[in-house]
Amino acid sequence: MTFDDLETDLINSNVLPGDPYDIPVVVQDKTFNADGTIFFDPLDHNGYLGDVFLANGKAQPFFRVERRKYRFRFLVGSNARFWELRLSNGQPFIGLGTDSWLYPNAIERDTLLLSPAKRADVIIDFTDAPDELFLENILVQEDGRGPKGKLDDRVVEIPGTPVIKFIVEGPPQPNSATADVGTTLRPHTPIREEEIVTTRVFEFERRKGAWQINHQFFDENLANATPTLGTAERWILRNEGGGWWHPIHIHLESHQIQRVDGQIPPLEDRFKSDTTILGSGTEAEVFMKFRTFRGPFVFHCHNLEHEDMRMMFVFDPRTEPTPSPQPIQQSFP
Ligand SMILES: [Cu+2]
Fewest C-beta atoms under 10 Å: which of 122, 160, 267, 308? Predict the structure, then answer.
């Protein structure tokens, strides 16, 4: 089957209110039964993978674009698949932000490495693009563990797996999207080392046929961590390995990645995010500041099957310094 056999318009039957040049896109992977219903095995706790890629719920979608800049807000809505998205002509993206936050300045991004729950806010400039190009995935993943590797992201002659076909039409258009690499966006205030009052270590691993943090399953009545409101903490997020990847999603606040396996992270990960990708055996050091609300809140692996099989912890910011763990003070809504 080719894109021409089964073309569906990405946008026209699926328009959200707003700017026609500011396009939300959810990418997912699904497996379908012969009758077109979605196949799902509730006993598979490793992580669901699909063999059909969807954008905004559509298989093999196309999107007609003018020769100008468009803003895309990508969200990964897959259960367990990781993606590295690129444009088939090798053209970079202009990165505006990640997860819910803008960067201090727009940056160039050759590819977008994304896990379940991660978002990428980018501009694609179609002004000089070929008449047809694809958004494609270059990660190779065969099971819920995580990607096995990737196609060479610099060799555009080896195509990735298409996600969206762009049909680029008409002459170059003037447009109001003035953002370019380097454009000032939103000031960034780093959390400083001197602000850190507590370090906590969280180890993510497969045990007893399910998924644990620090050798414990999720307990909704237990606050595993009780930070003090108004303070900042260092959290060490450690993946115990086995080939498993875990995207760690922390609610309530952004966190700021300091190091991944001792190294400064790539530029696109140095600011605010709420989901940090832990490759197998990887350790990330993040800073987080508890500015606003008492809990309880959760953090968890965003591989949905890992999360549902209890790889989740509770943190419950308190007004006074409190040793942890503690029983939670108020129940989840
Ligand atoms: Cu996981």
Answer: 267
